[in-house]
């Protein structure tokens, strides 16, 4: 499919593989041992400019934990200056006051993962003592500051109190709460190689992800399907190029051409049903559209 038929509207910008948490289900395999990769702040600014020139609408800064990336405020300010909409997907445990000010000044939206109303259950997932207390406190702070925030609850462990987690976020004033199951990517795969069949089929449909080494992927979960590298090739040449055409054909061969339109948009601004932490929908997999989800969702989005 050509770039004119499939315009690039949204990109995940994975600015770091460093995270202060070590969740067993992390699709990116990020942890305190992660790094910021080989992309410099100048490289990221170039990518943002390229996205704006290509007509993209929104970017989402992710990691790892993006607030641990030292140039995040600079990148947010630059993206805001180009007119891009901005969301930051954070665990909300490590936000300093100047970053809050940047969020407000640049109209940033936030998204976070929340695993239980129980601190012990939440911290068991993140493997970071005190993470529940800090995340919950910063959810409250974001809402007090008027910063839009959505939450996602991923079912990881038995007895995790995921329904209670949803109700807790709603009680705090979070208007959009989504749910997802653990997906077999990254550490959650437990060493099993990912396959195209594990994806949802929406990959590379008006969206892409760019990682800390410059690799371009069809989505955050499809990082085993590299489309190119922005340190070597302009993004406009990668998008709609020969390698992307091949990957899109491989995905369609497994999922069918209709996979991209079988479910409502979920991950901002128009992702299909893939994680992490989908927004408020009743299901998160085209092949399980009529099934009951493993966690409560609030009907209606990364």
TrEMBL record:
Recorded hits in Pfam families, A to Z, give: Radical_SAM, SPASM
For this protein, the record's CDD domains field holds: Radical_SAM, SPASM
Q: Which Gene3D superfamilies match?
A: Aldolase class I
Domain 4Fe4S-binding SPASM, residue spans? 202-248
Which SUPFAM superfamilies did the record assign? Radical SAM enzymes (SSF102114)
Name used for this protein in its record: Radical SAM protein
Q: Which molecular function terms from Gene Ontology are attached?
A: catalytic activity; iron-sulfur cluster binding; metal ion binding
Keyword Nucleotide-binding included in the entry's annotation: no
Name the UniProt key words of this record, in alphabetical order: Iron, Iron-sulfur, Metal-binding, S-adenosyl-L-methionine
| InterPro entries, sorted | 4Fe4S-binding_SPASM_dom, Aldolase_TIM, Radical_SAM_PqqE_MftC-like, rSAM, rSAM_sf
Domain Radical SAM core residues, every copy:
14-149
